[in-house]
Amino acid sequence: MRDTPFLEIWHSSEVLQRLRDRSLLSGACAGCGNKYICGGCRARGWAYFGDIHAPDPGCINNRDYWESLVEHQKK
Ligand code: SF4
Question: Could you give the CA distance from residue 37 to residue 34 in angstroms, rounded to a whole number?
Fold first, then answer.
């Protein structure tokens, strides 16, 4: 940030480009009609699944993913 203008980082960063590309989403987020408005929380996808494109388990549409996480915690 000290050496590169934010706008240049915004356009050139591979991670930021991938975060903006909603076609890369998975789970219910991938086929959701709201993905271009919402897109889910990418931080939660990363935190729970280690993938910035993973489904957001905090959304009711991804309830199956949340329940599998809960089941996994019980084991
Ligand atoms: S978090 Fe929920 S509402 Fe948002 S894109 Fe994903 S499935 Fe759709």
Answer: 5
Is there a domain that residue 1 lies in? Answer: no
* 57 in contact with ligand 1, CB cutoff 6 A: no
Domain encompassing residue 66: 6-74
pLDDT tens string 17-73: 999 999 999 999 999 999 999 999 999 999 999 999 999 999 999 999 999 999 998
Going from the Cα of 38 to the center of ligand 1, the distance in angstroms, rounded, reads 6
- Count of structural domains, the chain: 1
Q: Which of 38, 30, 73 is nearest to 55 (CA)?
A: 30
* Distance in Å, CA 5 to ligand 1 centroid: 31
With a 6 Å cutoff on the Cβ, whether 61 touches ligand 1 is: yes
